[in-house]
Amino acid sequence: MGTIIALLINMKNKTLSHFKSFFRSINLKTLFVLLGFVWVPTLYNSCAGYEANQEILKSVDLDTNQVNEPNNDASDTTDATNDQTPDNNEFDSSNDGWLIVQDYNNGAVGEKAQFDAGGASRYSDEVSLEGGQSCQMGINAGATGFGQWGGVISHPETLYEGDELWFRVYTYFPEGFDYFSYGEGGRLKFLRMHVENSQGDNRGYNDIYIDGKNASSAFKFIYEGEQRWVNLGEKSLLPKFNQWESYEFYVKFHHKSKDDGGEAVIRFWKNGELIKEITNRKTLVDPTDSSDRTHIFTYWNGGSPKTQFMYIDNLVLTSKTPPDMDEFGNPYVGTGIYQQEATQ
Ligand SMILES: [Ca+2]
Fold this sequence. Notes:
By secondary structure, this protein is an alpha+beta fold. 15% of the residues lie in helices and 31% in strands.
């Protein structure tokens, strides 16, 4: 497919005048054959697995994403990270929760990282927050990307009403990355916690979206079991290019909001700063609902506007209470760097 596109681009550049006269003289039947020639491999690549996608992604000119000048200088990350390295053992041992850390430092570069449904998520040494490696996430132009874009982490133990979940991840968007959605609602799925009922039927996700390009806010929250949007943060809080930034999404699962006498609370931080605490939304439909898995990205509403890559590093997903607290006394993972080895 990459070869076909390259050929078409070459033809356009080198023989534009011939190309125009060719199209003026072309009949409808030939046009359909040509369209099929392009469309069928595109469809194949959007459905096929890792190998097909890898081929496409390798054909991208990395110059346009400015990842040719990887910046592994740890001094650039000091603004976003704590000087102290927290100890995983500091996580609250008084509850029975679990802790997952992914630092992507030990996988073979180019191999698929440890996500479900993340065929184009691979270990990379092009940029890293710590340890020399990160996880590169990629998507093809026009693809919605399920099975390729982002990834899914199954919860080691299912979470129920009253349980809490913290999801912290560092992201690096290269210059020129377009993180907006241009269809199917016009918002980009970002951090997502899945909810199901006691029969295993879908109850919708607790979602953080990157809001629309022309929206007033940078992000939005919704619990799909309630379908009420909440704006999160000013536009200035959108991801910045060529730097590591942390995002953290906290949910206390409950079928009633705190404001309604329940326990459901949602918090969202960027770079350790609380963007919003939400106390008037529920996070389950029924008290018997549960949360079985967490997603990062996984489906690009309307399709990606271009073929592009970004990177994540030092992902922490935990139902154990983290040792750090924000300025309001809320426990959170914050900006600390954790080591994967200690949790294995
Ligand atoms: Ca790393």
